[in-house]
Every structure is written in structure tokens, then in C-alpha cells.
Specification:
Radius of gyration: 21 Å
Strand order of the largest sheet: 1-2
Largest sheet: 2 strands, antiparallel
Helix content: 55-70%
Shape: elongated
Number of strands: 2
Length: about 120
């Protein structure tokens, strides 16, 4: 059986065993492979402090970008400066880009969610 995860053979065997035994999908292991380690012959999930800071920075940055997008969305609605239709469209497109970018940033936290799920079950 292939796992689709490019890690050492011992880790791969442990992943396949734990996946069958604990009924965890292999996709979670693939997302969390950065955090998987074999310690004393057992599969462990190690999340260090830098990764935790990265997780919270992603949340903060995503929220900031999303709120900035909302702020810029107000400009064409209020329209104090007499913006042309093209300028309103450009601002709207920029806001849509900011919303999509904030979703991308927050999606980077899926690896942490998978790692924490595996850690709880192990």
C-alpha cells in the first residue's frame, strides 16, 4: 500500500500502522509530515515554539488583511471624492484579491490542525 508521503521508511510504516489502527486519514499525515518524528520507536508529533508563533502570526496577518479589505470596500460605497466607475471597479477587485489572500494565509494553518488532531489521538 502506498501512502503518498515522502518520509523515511520507518516513519512511513508507523504512519500506515497508526492510520489503520486509529482510523486517521492519510491526508492528515501528509499535511502534518513536517511535525512527525520517531522517538523511542513510536510515532510522535513535535510542534516547536517557532511553529506555534507561525500559527498565531498567520491568524493575525489574515485578520489584518481581511479587515483592510473591508476598509477599502467602504471607499467606493461612501464615494466622497467622486470616483469614476473604473476606479470603483479597481478598488472592488483589490478588495476581492485581499479577501482571497486572507483565506490563503489562514489555510496555511491546516497543517497545524492536522498535527494537533494526530497528537491528540496518539
Amino acid at each position: 500500500m502506498t501512502s503518498g508521503i515522502s518520509v523515511d521508511k520507518s516513519i512511513r510504516r508507523s504512519i500506515l500502522f497508526v492510520s489503520k489502527d486509529k482510523n486517521i486519514p492519510l491526508s492528515d499525515f501528509k499535511k502534518a509530515q513536517k511535525f512527525l518524528r520517531i522517538i523511542d520507536g513510536h510515532l510522535n508529533v513535535i510542534i516547536n515554539k517557532v511553529d506555534v508563533v507561525e500559527k498565531y502570526f498567520n491568524i493575525f496577518y489574515s485578520t489584518t488583511v481581511f479587515l483592510a479589505g473591508l476598509y477599502f470596500l467602504i471607499i467606493p460605497i461612501v464615494d466622497i471624492g467622486g470616483l469614476s466607475d473604473v476606479q470603483k471597479l479597481e478598488i472592488f477587485a483589490f478588495c476581492v484579491f485581499m479577501f482571497i489572500f486572507s483565506l490563503y494565509i489562514i489555510s496555511r494553518n491546516q497543517i497545524f490542525k492536522s498535527a494537533e488532531k494526530i497528537k491528540r489521538i496518539l
